[in-house]
Amino acid sequence: MIYFDNAATTYPKPKCVYDAVKLGMQKFSFNSGRGSYSSAVETFKMIQNTREKLANLVNTAPENVVFTSSATESLNIIINGLDIQQGDIVFVSPFEHNSIIRTLHKCGAVIKVIPFSKDDWFLRLAVYNDMLAIDKPKAIIISHISNVTGFELPYEEIFSQAKKHNITTVLDSAQGFGSHAVNPKNIDYLVFAGHKSLYGVFGIAGFINLCNKKLKIYKAGGTGSDSLNLEMPEELPSRFEAGSLNSVAIYALNQSIDFIKDNDFASKKHELTIYLLKQLREINGLILYCPSSIITKGIVAFNVEGYSSDDVGKILSSSYDICVRTGYHCAPLVHEFLDDKKYAGCVRVSLSGFNTKEEIDTLVKAIKEIIL
Fold first, then answer.
1. Burial of 211 (0-12, 13-18, 19+ CB in 10 A)
2. What is the pLDDT of residues 99-131, one digit of tens each?
3. Which fold has domain 2-10+264-371?
4. CATH 1.10.12.10 assigned to 15-261
5. pLDDT grade for 231, boundaries at 50, 70 and 90
6. What does the radius of gyration of the chain's CA atoms come to, in whole angstroms?
């Protein structure tokens, strides 16, 4: 099997992650903060150490790192915690995932899309600045890296303009955090997913509070502290960590962070992406969704003339044992932006640091045979 669906979840995982899951079940399968016995205390220390490793990636305090079960849960906690209500204006980009769009829709927000040129994907800065002045949005919530195209959004520019109007900013870095550097300046809340660019396992994610603002409580329950108080704690991270933490997945994440620090997967993915884009651009009958001036971050989207995206995916799977993602990718706005609905979405190839040029050669050969 050749696996090119790493934007959904990275596979394979580093060996240290597989080992950590086994060891974690034996050594850290205890409820942190709920006991004073040695195993519970050691589990608590391990979790705190993992917070420190994540916090160091954006130069903040460990207590600002909040663990959740998924990036989707994190975004729900943040969006509902911002108390976004019917009629509130929120800005997004054309590249957003349904974990943002559906959650905002459920709150009754008026969703307005930051303008990007469809030709070169450049931010239309003057129009955006006019929108900020006129609409005065309650928040701006955008992705770090598009899960469909691999486009790294100019979040630094978008957020720096937003802060001139004191607007809350949220960066969904599910596709980038850990493997790609993030500049925390002007970010209020940063979301991460453990099982994607951090090379951990399912069941652990979170967000990092990089501001002094206070979110309302969206989820309540036991925290192991101040248990006679019916209100959730004021202090972070307990305020947002109701329920038992997934200590086994956290330990796997602890080990994967060390692995990616010692292995420059970002550079390898960059090299592989250039290699893939160069070959795809030379194929007649292939529609590549990537301007010539851009090198995406390990994700490439395309279609093949005469085929639906799903048909291409099925052929690659059944005839070549190549795994790609097809369709609409849980991103409702980007497919209008790409104009790919006549293909029922697009084919997405998403790379990991474990992929090779030989695997890319096999994919390119397969696509050429489909077209012929």
1. middle
2. 999 999 999 999 999 999 999 999 999 999 999
3. Aspartate Aminotransferase, domain 1 (3.90.1150)
4. no
5. confident
6. 21
